[in-house]
Amino acid sequence: MTSSESQEKSQEPTTVPSSSTSEASQPQDVQPKAKVSSSDMEFYYKNLLPFRYVFQWLNHSPKPSTDFTMREFAYEFQSGAYRRYNSFDSLEDFKESIVKNNPSRFEVGAVYEINPRDRKSVPKSKMKPMEKELAFDIDLTDYDDVRTCCSKTAICTKCWKFITIATKIMDVALREDFGFEHIIWVFSGRRGAHCWVSDKRARQLNESQRRSVIEYMDVLKNKGTKRLNLRRPFHPHVQRSIDLLKAEFLDIILNEQDPWADDQAAFTALLKFPLEPLNKKLKEYWIENPGRSSLDKWSDINKICTDLSLQKYDLLAVNETKEELILEATYPRLDVEVTRQMNHLLKSPFCIHPGTGNVCVPFDSKNVFDPTKAPNLHQLQNEIIGWKGDNEVNDINRTSLKPYVESFGKYVTNLLKSEKNGKREREDESLEF
């Protein structure tokens, strides 16, 4: 065990800055609680952020390598200032710089051919990103046309279900269709989720290859047009997604969001159906029977189809349109540039969201994650103050942050094992004649 590791594992309990404790409270939602001060952030960096795991996650080894030392980091400060092209020589250098500069958050960038801090001494053409985790970003504001419970920056457990289903669809595609293994999902701290893929194959993708990946995943690229115009029969990924989304659509969209309770919104949805007699009959029925829910109106489509004795071809067109409506409402809505651009930076796991004070914790896409119960900085400070157990226990283990750090640690351990095995295989291959 290194001296720094020993220090992290046995750190003495510390005093929480008094400036924040009077405002601290157990969070019940993901909206702002109390303002996060500079002293709050300093406390968090000194005592709670798991620097070693973040370092190993980005370094892919316990000892410093170019995967870390040639990587760009960016700082955002409470003043609004933004400083790019920071780089670090070691775990100790990394932690010392974060604590000293005390940013409101820090972001992770690509590994460069030239050390980022030396960029001014070389031509711009030399500053080429060589590797970077494959990343995805989902933001609930992109669902404002279908979520009725919240809008803009506000979220609740109802609309978080859009994120839940999105992570399931993407996780399956990344593992089964692309063969990636080292995938972690991270709460953005307010209204979204970030996905990081750390497989070596993923990190080595160039921008053209990343564009191909995001085009494969971005089924809604034609969203906003009258029809999605997806090729039939569906690609296996799209069909698998449809099969998963159909049941979720009834719960997430029709029951909880009820977006077509408003007749005008329902009339707009009808424009996507290609049969004028069906559209006319449904519109008349809804005008004559006001107050029908979205679930009722969805069932009305089948009822009116039966009443009209539609031909098989017309029924097929109706069902295809319904499938497209399901995709439009519930399929993952992705920020394409976050995935495509290698020089795009993304907030690190375990950062504090400056607007809410929430910790950007990792979560398992296979299990239910409740963003309203994610650890909050002021909550963590109160947990440390109220600790009644063994004084030898370090600060992380005194708080609700502990299971998230442990989960991330297991993920990092598996990643490092894979990297070590891959390196051994490459060395063995180089010895073959």
UniProtKB/TrEMBL annotation:
GO molecular function terms noted in the UniProt entry: DNA-directed RNA polymerase activity; metal ion binding
SUPFAM superfamilies: Prim-pol domain
Keyword check for Ribosomal protein: no
EC number(s) given by UniProt: 2.7.7.-
InterPro entries on file: DNA_primase_S, DNA_primase_ssu_euk/arc
Chain intervals with Low complexity compositional bias: 12-28
Annotated protein name in UniProt: DNA primase
Species the sequence originates in: Wickerhamomyces pijperi
